[in-house]
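in:
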């Protein structure tokens, strides 16, 4: 941007399918603010879009006046992308300029004080003076000021409605209102049908002797000279053309991805998932499918670390010169061609590609087996809730279309989530907390159980109630019953039940099967030890007898 221009900023509107010329959005503001549009859908603009790090469409960038050094501008910051919001954000950005960088052609936008307004009454400048009175959050006054920049013999200012007594002296009962001072000194309120920007601006522009002045602005490029010759291709609207789908892949992989200098993390995972789906379901020609399969295998072998886009481009362009793989390197729209180059094209082909993949997925469900994790339970599909069977009054039909009765939905939600609708079935008892058995070993909370498993679980819950809840057990000695109670309260899940069952009396003497197993083990070990000792002393005694009968000579 040249430092001497009276241009405040350039608003770059990066669009995929521009249906409104950005230059015509605020044409009267051109002396203070210029609006330009750059179409990132055109491959010739690819390098510029990548340099300015544009990833989303539309993207708004603001550039201050008199900027000398290179900058990527400031991003648009607003709650939405409505034209009114964008216009107001442009005004906010304009007012952020300092006095030294304020464009000479732009009049002041700050509100006047009541004393300043009174001084205007005595001035005789030979032109109209309009003052728009408004609230502090209104943009009407500033918009009217900018609308009247290219017009002469009229000056527009704004004032706030803080001084009620002053407004009453002027006969102003509501805001926004426009108070006009005529060249001859007479003054009064402007009478318009609606207190809107367009009505005030139109009225002031239509005043006698108010006319448009000449402004020297940079000329716009001649669209006729730069327009490309569009070759129309006849096509059948009832057919799907492979040229559109392959052109979509070319544009996505070589132009759309080119906006990213590198890919990592979630972005790389998204690309990998998309290529996986396309490689499995794209009904293209063998060279294209082979290329997609190679790209999918290569991406699947990579960690989610950062990779440069150039690596993806090298594979797509077949830099390794592998035979049998190919993807067109230009677009050729057929069913997606538009009446002008900027219309339809890539957005149209992308929708056709998505619809094609969706149909292929339904007809070839085995193609995606083992490639993603479905989050939807087939027995509980995701549907709008509450369903008609739960809340018939929540659903109604208006002009043949299903719609919600929001009042009934609110009543249903309040009733459904109220404490009176809570039931204690399957809730854990006190003994089934973290210190008792809430879930069996290997069970997952909420996991569906087959009927036999559920039956066994109910039996376990019955058997593992707290000791005080069990029936009398007169057939057990007191010490055995105490040990059984301790084991029933063990936090070891089903193992506690097995030990509890093993703690039943054995032969009526209070020994468990575990105790008897230990006794048998000790008995066998003792027997073996005694036998070893017996043979040891027997052999030793024989040696002594031999020595006694054969004394040494």
């Amino acid at each position: 941007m040249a430092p001497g221009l009276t241009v405040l900023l350039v608003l770059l509107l990066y669009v995929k399918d521009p249906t409104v010329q950005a230059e015509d959005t605020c044409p009267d503001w051109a002396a203070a603010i210029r609006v330009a549009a750059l179409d990132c859908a055109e491959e010739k603009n690819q390098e510029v879009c990548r340099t300015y790090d544009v990833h989303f469409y539309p993207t708004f960038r603001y550039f201050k006046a008199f900027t000398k050094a290179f900058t990527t501008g400031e991003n648009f910051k607003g709650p939405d992308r409505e034209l009114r919001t964008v216009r107001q954000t442009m005004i906010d950005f304009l007012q952020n300029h300092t006095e030294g960088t304020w464009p000479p052609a732009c009049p002041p936008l700050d509100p006047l004080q009541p004393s300043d307004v009174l001084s205007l009454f005595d001035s005789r400048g030979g032109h109209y003076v309009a003052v728009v009175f408004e609230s502090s959050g209104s943009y009407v006054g500033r918009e009217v000021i900018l609308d009247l920049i290219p017009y002469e013999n009229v000056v527009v200012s704004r004032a706030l409605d803080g001084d009620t007594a002053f407004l009453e002296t002027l006969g102003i009962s509501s805001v926004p209102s426009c108070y006009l001072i005529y060249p001859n000194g007479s003054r009064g309120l402007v009478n318009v049908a609606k207190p809107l920007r367009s009505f005030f601006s139109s009225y002031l522009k239509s005043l006698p002797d108010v006319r448009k002045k000449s402004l020297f602005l940079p000329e716009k490029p001649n669209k006729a000279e730069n327009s490309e010759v569009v070759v129309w291709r006849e096509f059948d609207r009832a057919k799907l053309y492979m040229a559109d789908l392959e052109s979509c892949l070319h544009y996505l992989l070589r132009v759309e991805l080119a906006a990213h200098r590198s890919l990592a993390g979630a972005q790389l995972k998204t690309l990998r998932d998309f290529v996986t789906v396309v490689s499995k379901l794209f009904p293209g020609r063998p060279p294209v499918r082979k290329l997609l399969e190679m790209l999918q295998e290569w991406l699947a072998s990579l960690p989610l670390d950062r990779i440069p886009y150039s690596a993806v481009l090298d594979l797509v362009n077949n830099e390794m010169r592998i035979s049998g793989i190919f993807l067109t390197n230009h677009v050729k729209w057929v069913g997606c061609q538009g009446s002008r180059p900027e219309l339809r094209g890539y957005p149209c082909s992308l929708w056709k590609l998505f619809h094609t993949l969706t149909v292929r997925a339904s007809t070839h469900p085995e193609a995606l087996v083992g490639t993603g994790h479905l989050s939807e339970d087939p027995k509980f599909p995701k549907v709008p809730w509450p369903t008609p069977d739960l809340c018939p009054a929540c659903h109604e039909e208006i002009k043949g279309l299903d719609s919600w009765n929001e009042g009934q939905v609110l009543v249903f939600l309040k009733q459904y989530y109220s404490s009176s609708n809570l039931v204690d079935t399957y809730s854990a008892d006190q003994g089934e907390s973290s210190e008792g058995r809430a879930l069996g070993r290997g069970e997952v909370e909420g996991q569906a159980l087959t009927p036999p498993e559920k039956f066994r679980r109910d039996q376990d819950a019955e058997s593992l109630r707290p000791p005080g809840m069990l029936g009398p057990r007169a057939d057990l000695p007191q010490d055995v019953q105490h040990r059984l109670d301790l084991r029933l309260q063990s936090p070891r899940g089903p193992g506690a039940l097995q030990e509890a069952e093993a703690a039943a009396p054995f032969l009526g003497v209070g020994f468990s099967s575990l105790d008897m197993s230990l006794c048998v083990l000790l008995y066998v070990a003792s027997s073996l030890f005694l036998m070893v000792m017996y043979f040891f002393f027997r052999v030793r005694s024989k040696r002594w007898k031999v020595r006694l009968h054969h004394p040494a000579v």
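note: The domain at 242-363 is CATH 1.20.120.1960 (Four Helix Bundle (Hemerythrin (Met), subunit A)).
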